[in-house]
Amino acid sequence: MKLSIEIKHSDGKDKLHLIDPTEAVQEFAVSAFFGYCREMNGEGTLVIQRERPKPDEKNTPRPEWYETGIKFKNGIPHYRTRYWCPNPNCNHSGNQYIGLHDKTTECHECYTVMEVNPATREVDENGIPKRDRFGNFFRAEKLAGVTVS
Ligand SMILES: [Zn+2]
């Protein structure tokens, strides 16, 4: 088992950074570090940062639609649509999944209805837009029903 301890001196504060220790080792290291700080600096602010191991990405597979950009709802494909809410009081952005012939989508936060456009100018033989480099089939950022002159 590996334990690394990083001690930083910055702004007059000592920082202890423990990487992947067990709880028991943390307790030991923290109390030892307290002793060290007292000796070196006397009483002072001590910042202790405990780092949780990051979840292993391989063990938590992403859902298939994360890669494909296509979610099936009742067997019907819905395509990833990136939206930027045009409501100035909202400005939320996110993903929606829409049917191929849907003309609008709505903001998850404020339900503003937006006009949907293909993410790229290219369309495949089935009429499905080619995905942009972020994996979106469609994009939406304008209020639906508003024509720009
Ligand atoms: Zn919104």
From TrEMBL:
<protein>
    <submittedName>
        <fullName>Uncharacterized protein</fullName>
    </submittedName>
</protein>
